[in-house]
## 1
Amino acid sequence: MTALAAPPARFRDLLAAEWIKARSLRSTPWTIALTALFVVGSAAVSTLADDGAGSGPAGFRPFDAYPAAGYWTLMLVAGSMGALTVVSEYGSGLIRTTTVAVPARGSVVLAKAAVTAALWTVVGTALSVSSFFVSQAVLDGRGGGVPITHPGVFRALTASALLAPVCALVGLGVGVLLRHAAGTMVTSVFVLLMLPTMFSESDRWSADVRHALVAAAWNRLVQPWDPGSGSLAYTATVPGSWTVYALWPLIMVAVAVFVVRRRDV
């Protein structure tokens, strides 16, 4: 008798499987909840501590609503959680079972990327909107709040919402490349958080490197004003910063798909 081959897995089945993996981890909801508490709390604390945010409606103050401490923490957590979707399977050996069940490794990575992007887009949007309204609630008591329709607010809100999925996909790509938990975490933290601090905007080459990094792009996008020349010779542009947002996850996922198709598990 001839054995019947199992039908190939449909992509929606891969999405469902990856979603089950994501929500079945007990650490996922706790990590998201604690991150949300810290990020939104940092917006409230930053606004309360801003002595200049209370002299009337002087305009949108983005770094009260989106303080660096909160959103750099969000970058760290999202990047780490994105990496864990891959390195946890390599560490436990589950990846071998996955690739036996689904030989199309590229499709598996794309399914992981889709679920990761969707999850962290929802989380990032909820945190961005919450941070804005919490900060403006504080400022309203001082007569300095602005509505969500105020110029510059929507761009800052969108950039802060998309920061989480961008970093999560970067972490996922690094995880596929390195396949080692400690190495992946260190590399993700270095690329997302530490590398931008090593470059300034005073020299053209240094500014070009800095502007190509996610943290610098987010920093530019949340600014509702034009930095102008000032003391810095080179500043990032808004279209260029959006391009950085788009290219980093696209390149990392593309590289991850290319790599898994051409190497052994």
## 2
Amino acid sequence: MDILTEALASMRTGQPVAVRTTGFAPWAMSLPPIPGSGFHVVLSGAAWLIPVEESGEQPVYLREGDVVFLRDGCRTVLADHPDTPPQEPRSVESPPGAPLGAVTLGADGERADLLCGYYHLDQARQHPLVGRLPRIIHLPAAGTRSPELAAAVGLLRTELDRPRMGSAGIVPVLIDSLLLYILRAWHEEQPPETARGWAAALADQAVAPALTALHGDPARAWTVQELAVRAGLSRAAFAKRFAELVGEPPMAYLTRWRMTTAARLLRESEAPLAAVAARTGYGSEYAFAKAFKREYGQAPGGYRRELRTAA
């Protein structure tokens, strides 16, 4: 069971949105808050990412090949220099044969090309694997320990610079995969001696197997004792270690994951409520509906109808 893939799948509410942005110095573009998690990839040149909200983050200088991930899609400015005042970009164009729309702004100075976009992720119910990340993650191309991320950036640059047969299908897949590469790179690059939270949990020899078991079979009637035996620890030691790294006790996390799994089944499948209840560990539709309403504030049937109406 791939915990990262499952966690992201549980949060996805739509397909990624992306556009190619080209700026000629001096240039600056204000980016409003977005309903998901944002990302920027520097395809060529350089740029500054400037947080606008009072969150304590400092401007980040981005070089060619750098990737930045915005956990909450916060308001930011992209610019050639922090002092350049933001301007309205020209309208999004769709160049013939290009796999993405394009935005151009600025004057006639030094050029920078970026891939800018966001992932539709449920911000109201973030999985803690994402929710406890830093608000801004900067993955520099220089010194990265993730050759896969660097390769994905290189492939994107090639397909966008020289669109060919198949580019329209390749680019969206690469953008979709980029999210996994970004998060995997960040978690794997945390030094073991200083890693905290989920970065430590996913590498922990006791907690990681327990998480894999809970994700792999949420319907099972797990007990803390059973998970502790799998982890090779006493019940008390395991419960303490799990809570410290994951942020909540094992059974609380199991309930959260069951409800997250149920919401995903209601959103993406036609499974009857009884089947959803069984697949998430509830012996009756009534018990499942009661637990779901406590977590989501509405009955599962109403939740499903509301999603379909919104769509």
## 3
Amino acid sequence: MEELDLILDSVKDDMDAAVRHLDHAFQRIRAGRASTAMVQDVMVEYYGAPTPLNQVANVSVPDAMTISIQPWDRTAINAIEKAIINSNLGFAPSNNGENIILNVPPLTEERRKELAKQAKGETEDTKIVIRNARQNGIKELKKLDGVSEDIIKDSEATIQDYTDKYVKICDDHLKNKEAEIMKV
């Protein structure tokens, strides 16, 4: 029975990880307002090593359409600008010698639809991961020796319940993100 619990826990952990990944992916999809999450994956070449932006500068959002980046070391300002340009985020950084300002342009209707489509794609990818976790869990159940068929069937039903629950979570997250993106 311990093996059975391990399999069920593993399936649930895989599905949890998939939803966490979806949340992270959604943070990178901008919804018209400035957010520090938009630049969280930017890597800056700092003293010869790629370093996350938040480790070389303070990133803040002074208003809904602006991201402010204040480097702790002023000599890094050019490297930060270069990293932002190379990250293909679509921002044109401007600096005043002390900090970098990113103006977040308002989204066009066409761009909103593209972002909603991107969010839907991320959700579908996550659902595939969830279904793969279900398949792997069921395969592992069938490999167990000395476990009654009834217990295997009950465990398969539990895994299916997990799958349904996590697919619904993904759909709910998508609905919220689409509403956020389409809100003008």
## 4
Amino acid sequence: MLALAVVVLWYATTSLMGKKIVLPNTTTSLVVIGFVAGVVGGATNAMSSVLLMYLLSMTDDKDTIIKVGNLCYFVNKIVQAIVLKEFLLEVPIQTWAMILGLTVLSVLGIIIGAKLGKHLPSAKFRTLILWVLVGLGVKVGWQGVQGVL
């Protein structure tokens, strides 16, 4: 987690200071980053930071970043549900009510975000995502420090 935090914070701060990091647009790059994101996601449950860094390095088109990011998150949740099926079947009804409520709030947030996103310029969107990465990097770093202690 500490290594992930260092990489995420380095990428985000470097990008915020104006240096755009560009990865080669090849199938090999795609496969390697996808594999790394899967390993990181399995080990730390922080796959989003790797995917966001990859998407930001490949395109400035906010619509592409949003669509690909959402598709990756959706597929990730399906895989998690399949892998954790036995544990999910043991979750109490009260917990499912809370999960349903949070899901409804999340969907509402997505709808509001989609409406606001149409008015957000790509450059501001990119900056916002980089600040989200800073937050994720700090969070993962803090969790890593706590794990060491």
